[in-house]
Amino acid sequence: MHLYINTTSPFVRLVRLAIEEKGLTSKVELEIVDPWGDPAAFLKANPAGRVPVLTTDDDHIIAEAHLILRYLDEIAQPSIFPSEDLARTLSIAAPALGATEAATAIIIGRKSSEAFDTDMVGSKRYRTMADGLARLEKALPRDFADRPDIANFAAVTAVDYIVFRFTDRDWLADLPNLRAWRDRQKGHPSVEATMPYI
């Protein structure tokens, strides 16, 4: 399989966490691409110009992180959507994914407006990030060591991306439970292997 990635995308990280936890690392070739550079082969694979994009072994092209996660869950265990407490797991993942969406919207919005952070849309996105983290503080996911699932994938991705991209504040200052949860994930192989970087 082949996966287009970049090194900062939180949506790429969600997929890479699944690849790591499912033991598929040796079966997926990673290709770093600049989505804003519009390379021809990448746009041919995904006209939307977004990462991640997976090409399967039988040459099917799957774009969008959640669709790729669905495919990976079909071909390899463990499932990241646990049947025994699926609703609780998804309810924890949802605000984390929302916070991540909001954070990426700000980064992209800044490309079109220097005032994006403080305009109506940017202000709402900041509120969404803070609210998403606050909800995680009250309903923590399982530790990776207990079980990898979409909730801890989404939580670690949201926390790390927001801290990585928005360095003007300590986002976890008033969230001691979430800070302690994130500290417990340090050293976990998939978490360390997928950290965002420039």
Automatic annotation (TrEMBL):
Assigned keywords, A-Z: Transferase
PROSITE patterns: GST_NTER
Recorded superkingdom: Bacteria
Any one of the GO CC terms: cytoplasm
Domain GST N-terminal: 1-80
Gene Ontology terms, MF aspect: transferase activity
Protein name stated in the entry: Glutathione S-transferase
Source organism phylogeny: Bacteria, Pseudomonadati, Pseudomonadota, Alphaproteobacteria, Rhodobacterales
